[in-house]
Design goal:
By secondary structure, this protein is an alpha+beta fold. It has 2 domains: 100 residues, Pseudouridine synthase; 132 residues, Pseudouridine synthase (2-Layer Sandwich), CATH 3.30.2350. The chain contains 7 helices and 15 strands. The longest helix is centred in the N-terminal third of the chain and has 12 residues. The chain is globular. The relative contact order is 0.25. The model has no long low-confidence stretch (mean pLDDT 93).
């Protein structure tokens, strides 16, 4: 594919370490505008509060968007027990509070292990999934709740890294389309105390790692991104 596209220095992938706050679309718009690149996309959305690996697709690199999005992802994060929010993460409003002081490390580990393998997951209302052409988050803003068809996901790894009540830090490796905040929410429901996601950092997409990414501020300080672009010829073998 790469040899037949007449590729330029800005056709390929750009690894960005996304800060908390902006949307993935915001990052795309900033890079497109700042470096005056006509075509910029991304290979998998991160929620505004999330940080970590965001792969931008430049120029003819946008043609491999679907191949990139299909890869497995790894995240490090933290959930807070005892508080449920309407978005299942810290960007939402609290909707219920419970005493979680009795929850043990062993109980959390057991719930994480119970979620390994194939499972059907119902996407949260606050998400970009469209029902009849309308993103769910727009319906949620109006106070509407609609039925969402569950999706098949697979969790390869779900390990507890640290438990300092009420916060549990973890690492999870999963297939595309997995909502980590929903995993946290569901664990809170199973433990009868509620939970929400307070931190999320994507560390890997397939063979690509955040260790090779440049923080957004550092990227925007460069005179050009040409030296940071992974050419399609080098990226395609990593996509399998």
């Amino acid at each position: 594919m790469a040899a037949s596209l007449n590729l330029g220095p800005l056709d390929g992938l750009l690894l960005v370490d996304k800060p908390a706050g902006p949307t993935s679309h915001d990052i795309v718009a900033q890079v497109r505008r700042h470096f005056r690149i006509a075509k910029v996309g991304h290979g998998g959305t991160l929620d505004p509060m999330a940080t970590g690996l965001l792969i931008l697709l430049l120029g003819k690199g946008t043609k491999i968007s679907e191949r990139l999005m299909g890869h497995d992802k790894t995240y490090e994060g933290a959930m807070r027990l005892g508080i449920e929010t309407d978005s299942q993460d810290a960007d939402g409003q609290p909707v219920a509070e419970h005493d979680a002081s009795g929850i043990t490390r062993e109980q959390i580990v057991a719930q994480m292990q119970a979620r390994l393998g194939d499972q059907m997951q119902t996407p949260p209302m606050v998400s970009a999934i469209k029902i009849n052409g309308v993103p769910l988050y727009k319906l949620a803003r109006k106070g509407q709740t609609v039925e969402r068809p569950p999706k098949l996901i697979h969790v390869y790894r779900f390990d507890l890294l640290d438990y300092t009540p009420p916060d549990a830090r973890f690492v999870v490796e999963c297939t595309k389309g997995t909502y980590v905040r929903t995993l946290a929410h569901d664990i809170g429901q199973a433990l009868h105390v509620g939970a929400h996601l307070v931190q999320l950092r994507r560390t890997h997409i397939g063979k690509f790692t955040v260790a090779d990414a440049l923080p957004l501020a550092d990227l925007l300080a460069l005179p050009s991104v040409a030296d940071r672009v992974i050419p399609l010829a080098a990226a395609l073998p990593l996509l399998g």
